[in-house]
């Protein structure tokens, strides 16, 4: 008796079952990875904004306890907007975690011993 080449119905059903289990285990975790990635992206963007706020403060010779807004950094080309079509003429910078607009975030400038430091809005006490 000659055996036909190919898979049996049982083998195909077993493979589909195994793939189904793998998919059920993997898909819920992709959202967690996206959240972690967006949080890291926000921290990176925040660090870039703060670094450029120091440059802005130095270039403008700002005094201690001055306040800079992210929109000021966009207007003077210290940072690039993420989107130019956001109903704000200078463009918008977004928070990747919640898609909020960061343009109105304030950054407090401190000047100690001729060295500038800056604090993000949530860090100002």
Describe this structure in words.
The model has no long low-confidence stretch (mean pLDDT 88). The chain has 2 helices and 3 strands. 46% of the residues lie in helices and 14% in strands. It is an alpha+beta fold. The chain has one domain (11-123). The chain is rod-shaped and about 95 Å long. It has a 3-stranded antiparallel sheet.
Mean pLDDT: 88
Number of strands: 3
First-to-last CA distance: 86 Å
Tell me the fraction of residues in β-strands, as a range: 5-15%
Largest sheet: 3 strands, antiparallel
* Class per helix and strand makeup: alpha+beta
Q: Which percent bin holds the helix content?
A: 40-55%
Shape: rod-shaped
**Count of the separate structural domains:** 1
Number of helices: 2
Major β-sheet strand ordering:
1-2-3
| Run of helices and strands | HEHEE
Q: Report the uncertain regions.
A: none
Using only CA atoms, what is the Rg? 26 Å
State the gist of this model.
The protein is α+β, with helices and mostly antiparallel strands. Helices cover 46% and strands 14% of the residues. It has one domain.
Give a quick set of tags describing it:
125 residues, three-stranded antiparallel sheet, 2 helices, 46% helix, 14% strand, rod-shaped
Task: Produce the secondary structure layout.
Layout: H1 9-60, E1 66-69, H2 70-75, E2 106-112, E3 115-120
Antiparallel strand pairs: 1-2, 2-3
């Amino acid at each position: 008796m000659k055996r036909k080449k190919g898979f049996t119905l049982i083998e195909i059903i077993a493979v589909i079952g195994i793939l189904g289990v793998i998919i059920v285990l993997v898909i819920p975790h992709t959202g967690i990875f996206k959240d972690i990635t967006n949080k890291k992206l926000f921290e990176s963007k925040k660090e870039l904004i703060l670094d450029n706020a120091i440059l802005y403060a130095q270039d403008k010779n700002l005094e201690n306890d001055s306040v800079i807004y992210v929109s000021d950094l966009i207007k003077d080309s210290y940072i690039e907007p993420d989107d130019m079509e956001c109903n704000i003429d200078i463009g918008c910078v977004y928070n990747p975690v919640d898609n909020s607009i960061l343009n109105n975030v304030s950054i407090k400038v401190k000047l100690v011993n001729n060295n500038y430091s800056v604090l993000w809005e949530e860090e100002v006490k």
